[in-house]
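A quick aside before the break. I want you to see a complete sequence-to-structure record at least once, exactly as it would be stored in a machine-readable document. Don't worry about memorizing anything.
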Amino acid sequence: MESVLLDTSFCIRLIKKDDPYHLNAIEYFQYFLENKIELFLSTIVVSEYSVKDDINNLPLKTMKIIPFDFFDGRIAGEFWALLLDQKQPIQDKERKIVVKDDCKLIAQLYNRKIDSYITKDRKSFSQIIQPITSNKNFKIEIMDIAISLKDYRNELF
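That is the input. The structure line, written in tokens, reads:
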């Protein structure tokens, strides 16, 4: 792993000390820094995070902020179209908004060749990420913040 895109759910838990996954977020964050894994923060995540908290509360100096640009928009549209063509399309209106943002983030992963993604959104694994990566034949390492770093790495510390 050389690079990771940080999802909004990760950023929230990194700062929110009373969250059940706060310690997991801290462990992953320290691991990324210690192993010189490049941290990417999308402007999409900035907009989502800013709804509930000041973005400046995040350790921004450790992160490379990436804008959502024309090329990301084009690929995100292709990814969204792919999901709409699935046998079981997403019906929930609120979920569709989330899925569109997920498509945007996956487009940024794809376009910038970021090799991993950390999130808490388990629904996105099978319903969104897997169909897109299978269809477009690319791989990303997905980390679930609900799983401790120790368990994720399957090591005993």
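Two observations worth writing down. The first helix runs from residue 8 to 15. The beta strands are 3-6, 38-42, 63-66, 116-119, 141-144. We'll return to this after the break.
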